[in-house]
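Q: Could you predict the 3D structure of Apurinic-apyrimidinic endonuclease 1?
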Amino acid sequence: MVRTRRSSSVPEQLERTAKRDRKAKTNAKKSQSAKVKTGTNIHSDTISPWHVGAHVSVAGGVENAVLNAASIGANAFALFLKSPRQWASAGLNPSNIENFKARMQEYHYKPRDVLPHGSYLINLGNPDAEKRQKSYECFVDDLNRCEQLGLEVYNFHPGSSVGATTTGESIGLIAECLNQAHTAMTSVVTVLENMAGSGHIIGSDFSHLADIIAAVKDKSRVGVMFAAGYDIRTKEGWEETLTKFDQRVGLSYLRGMHLNDSKTDFASKRDRHENIGMGYIGLEPFHHILTDPRVQGIPLILETPEPETWATEIKVLNELSTCTKLDEKKKKALLCRIRKSLKRAGPPYRAGSKPNGSTKTRKGS
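A: Sure. Here are the predicted structure tokens for Apurinic-apyrimidinic endonuclease 1:
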């Protein structure tokens, strides 16, 4: 007799699917926990005096950002406090907050090591009062989340004039919003990110940031995140950039840096991230940065496109910080390690954007 397989009812199918999902989540949590407990990349203040990390995921709860950072050997990390592409998000629940703080202590992270990133929707420089108010409310909600988690700094894009007002007027609106937010919230330092400079973006020139800071009443509540737009491809270029920053803004305001290579050449006015050493910037500039005591002690956050390579890139950057001189042999060895990690990452990554990476597309991408 041939047995026929009895078809399942819809509720039974849903239950089996839910059971599989629960099992997958449990296994993922166990895997992540095991990685943090037994891995070799565990965060420790003794790894390096440089606060190198990455912008890590908060999937499953904001507290998981701490585990994700520890698992890649990060001495610092960035995270989103809510969806960066939605105006409204559910608030943090007490267990999220409690677990985040507990894990911060467990893995020896200090508030200064964590640099939350603001919503991409926020534009405090918009001359449209209604739209600016919507941005401001989203902005203050982020600051409130920082205070709930015990974090001290908050990184955001200054905004844009949207072509509807002058740069000066837009800068004034941003400063006005910051003054209002500093009064509303008690402690968080608002960190302006400098930008690549496309369109009507505010922050493409250090003078924009200096003008905003000049109009902020409480100077202790404002800082700058260096991210893009200046030529640091040579030692001389790096020195000139930092000197210019000190003259126009002041090094005391530098609260963090984004670290990534570039898919586009200098002056493209586009901020297109590439893995360390694989783009138009190259490896040497990161040696200049990681041996400059002026940027020691602030979060240096990777924003490279392949999360699977972050642990390797962090190790490479920390190793660069110990090199008195980066010779060709050492450079080739470090670049080889990054290329190998990219190869392990697999498709859909397209290796290299010239001149340091291969332009050959991997099989399957």
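Q: Anything worth pointing out?
A: The first strand starts at residue 52 and ends at 55.
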